[in-house]
Design a protein that fits this description.
2 domains, Methane Monooxygenase Hydroxylase, Chain G, domain 1, mainly alpha, about 210 residues, Hypothetical protein af1432, about 60% helix
């Protein structure tokens, strides 16, 4: 069963700039590249990618797992298709989150996981961190040495002290080591290096050292 770009675009109307349809298109380009290199089922990867953040805003507002919600909606949308294919698609969607189970068990799920995380690092990752921070009235910067990792693990990004610097230290800097595919890990190295250099430069500029 095919889901077209235009059908998918309509599902993300009104989404925030961090998780809008532009995000879906970026992840799709990465997922297709990784799938081709790794020999994954492109039809599963493509549909899972197009649907993986469907209903995210509503799920977040209700404090629900957005990946589980997207998988539920996808299962309803894909009714009538081959059950094994639907299961492959919905598992990939359900397993794409960084912070929660399930782990991606199939190559297709691993491809989507890696592509989604690659869009959270590098230059686009920095841009997304600041877009989110601006939308939530976060400060631009915090001294790296004052970041309280224990507090973040208790409160996450809901903490009133959270900044893009926190996001880099507690999540984004760890993503390259969480990827599953050889292709994804190779792509992550350069993106990680750029992002780490950015936050080091930011720290130096704020302190008047550069």
């Amino acid at each position: 069963m095919e889901v077209t770009l235009e059908q998918a675009r309509a599902l993300y109307a009104g989404a925030d700039s961090v998780h809008d349809f532009d995000h879906i298109l970026r992840v799709l380009a990465l997922a297709e590249r990784i799938a081709a290199a790794e020999g994954a089922n492109l039809a599963v990867v493509r549909v899972a990618t197009l649907l993986h953040d469907w209903g995210r805003a509503e799920a977040t507002a209700l404090q629900r797992d957005h990946a589980a919600e997207a998988a539920r909606r996808a299962r309803e949308l894909l009714q009538g298709a081959d059950p094994a294919w639907v299961e492959a698609v919905t598992h990939a969607i359900a397993a794409h989150r960084f912070r929660s189970a399930p782990e991606p068990q199939t190559l297709e799920a691993q491809v989507l996981f890696d592509a989604d995380k690659l869009d959270a690092i590098g230059a686009i990752g920095v841009a997304r961190a600041y877009a989110y921070g601006g939308a939530h009235q976060q400060r631009l910067w915090a001294p790296i040495e004052t970041v309280d990792l224990a507090r973040w693990h208790r409160e996450g990004d809901a903490s009133d002290q959270h900044t893009p610097v926190h996001e880099f230290l507690v999540k984004l800097s760890r993503l390259k080591d969480r990827l599953y595919t050889r292709t994804g890990r190779a792509l992550a190295e350069d993106r990680h290096r750029y992002m780490a250099d950015f936050f080091q430069r930011l720290d130096a500029e704020v302190r008047g050292e550069r």
